[in-house]
Amino acid sequence: MGLRPGEKVLIITDRAEFEVGISLKQRAEKITDPSKVKLFVLEDLVLRPLRALPQAIAVAIPAVDVTFWAAESLPGELVARQEFLHEAKKFARHGHMPNITRQLMEQGMCSDYDKVYELTHKIYDIVRKAKKITVTNKLGTRIESEFDFKWRWIPSDGRYHEKGNWGNLPEGETFTAPKLINGKLVTNLLGDWFSEKYGNFNDPLSFLIEDSKIQTDSISCENSGLKADLLRYLSTDQNSTRASEFALPTNPELMVLPTIGNLLQDEKARVHIAFGDPYQDETGAPWKCPTHVDMLLEKCDLAVDGVPLMKNGAYLV
Q1: What distance in Å separates the CA atoms of residue 21 and residue 100, rounded to the nearest whole number?
Q2: pLDDT tens digits, one per residue of 26-49
Q3: Phi, psi angles (nearest 5°) of residue 116
Q4: What ranges make up the beta strands (E) of the chain?
Q5: Tens digits of residue pLDDT in 64-112
Q6: Is 64 within 8 Å of 92 (Cβ atoms)?
Q7: How far, in Å, CA of 8 to CA of 236, rounded?
Q8: Nearest CA-CA partner of 141 in 287, 272, 26
Q9: Which of the four pLDDT bands, split at 50, 70 and 90, describes residue 131?
Q10: Which of 66, 262, 294, 315 has a CA between 20 and 30 Å from the CA of residue 75?
Q11: CA dist., res. 295 & res. 214, Å (int)
Q12: Is 82 within 8 Å of 277 (Cβ atoms)?
């Protein structure tokens, strides 16, 4: 985050992730004046799940230089998190850490971020002008994605040193909104609150994508509860089923480890595709959505405009 002496810090945490929140506070107080570090525990302000950003937090944002969101994700809270993120980017640089845990602090957050930066920009330079990317894996994923040059690729390299910079921590990916996706997707890990509730699931979930839309009648999953939860989630908005993010991992130390069932870290180690909101401010894609769910793809083979870039989940560069 590049925190400097004299800067003001705002940390949002909750009871579930308080250990992380208080650690961020203690570390920040070693760099800047402790009186300039403010921590809010969500349950002290409002009932969960959040339906809107608490006023006490909203009025605190414009006065700070660095913000953190280190709290558990609950169903229905994405809109409040989006509201916080939108405001934080206006005034500060932001570390977004929904569902952060001690394990993630000890693994992904302890990566060599010089290596993350290097790989992120190497992959970004390869894909930022891509017209088409194909993805396959042994689970049955067969996807073809097309891209619009007017929609930006974002190199999420883990360095947030200027106002308006932000990213999900642990970090390491480059992403954009796809113009068009068709094919079949097979996943065993979902984002948002699904990550906390289900983790890695043994019986993969699969579905068809046509013209960038999940064909909900094609969803197949042995876990009836997961399938029902996903169908409800995808019915939230007309764009909830729309492919909104195509992302490549760029944290080399995580890419060689098994996934842990927490998407905040695992998405920095695997190819992933999301549906719903396309992070319009970053990518330039012309729609918004109150939902955004990432879907992880294991051990992918990937080609950029016909040139192989990844084999069995490992880069060829």
Answers
A1: 9
A2: 999 999 999 999 999 999 999 999
A3: -60, -45
A4: 9-13, 37-41, 66-70, 93-96, 132-136, 142-146, 154-156, 166-168, 173-176, 180-187, 205-210, 213-214, 243-249, 271-276, 292-297, 301-304, 307-311, 314-315
A5: 999 999 999 998 898 999 999 999 999 999 999 999 999 999 999 999 9
A6: yes
A7: 37
A8: 272
A9: very high
A10: 66
A11: 12
A12: yes
With a CB cutoff of 8 Å and minimum separation 6, the contacts of 89 are 164, 166, 281
Q: How far apart are CA 288 and CA 238, in angstroms?
A: 10
Give the span between the Cα atoms of 76 and 51, in whole angstroms.
7
Give yes or no for a contact between 275 and 238, defined as CB atoms under 8 angstroms apart.
no
Q: CA-based Rg of the chain, rounded to a whole angstrom?
A: 19
Contact 285, 303 (CB under 8 A): no
- What tokens does 305 get? 């405009």
Is a pLDDT exceeding 90 seen at residue 202? no
Query: 249 with 269: CB under 8 angstroms?
Result: yes
- Going from the C-alpha of 150 to that of each of 131, 136, 167, 176, the distances in angstroms are 12, 26, 21, 11
